[in-house]
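Lecture 7 notes: from sequence to structure.
We start with the chain below.
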Amino acid sequence: MGATEATLGVIREMAAAMEEHRGYLTKLDSEIGDGDHGTNMHRGFQAALERLDGAELNTPADVLKAVSMALISKVGGAAGPLYGTAFLRASTALADKEEVSGEDVAAALEAALGGIQQRGKAEVGDKTIVDALTPAVEAAKGAGGGSVAEVFRAAAAAAEEGAVSTVEMTARRGRASYLGARAVGHRDPGATSTQLLLEAAARSLGSE
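Predicted structure tokens for the same chain:
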């Protein structure tokens, strides 16, 4: 399987994960946010699948850019611009590469994190996507010499730890920041969706 087809498979698995966990993400968001994160992420990835269907896709970067455009246009709240920027930066990092290595994936994830931080101004400890994606990037870079699947598995495991760590945090960014100490005890929905997306990528790629 070529890298472009593999990337399409990853996006399909991500979309399936957002459909499967829509209720869970919405429940998390209803506790500390607007209660629409699961619905928004599901809508965005369904729009991404529609955009990809019939599109001319020659490289993995083409796939990621199309996903970016769909998320920015269809996902409400902060998640659309943040995830849209993440996919766009990842697309730029892969440029015109027709094949993708583990190191390329690590670089793309790092670019995605940079885009999210530039747009959202969040740091580790603010109870956001960044708390899952930052350790994921570090793990990906550490596993960069491995296969693409190995890199995603390492990133997903680290993202899960990062998402769990948000439970004890006071939110300093986003809607949850209005709750102050009342946000403690709740898992951040954005960090959780990041974990779920990375797990979907690893699952899609199997044991390659």
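Points to note: Residues 3-205 form a domain with the Serine Threonine Protein Phosphatase 5, Tetratricopeptide repeat fold (CATH 1.25.40.340). The chain has a mean pLDDT of 91.
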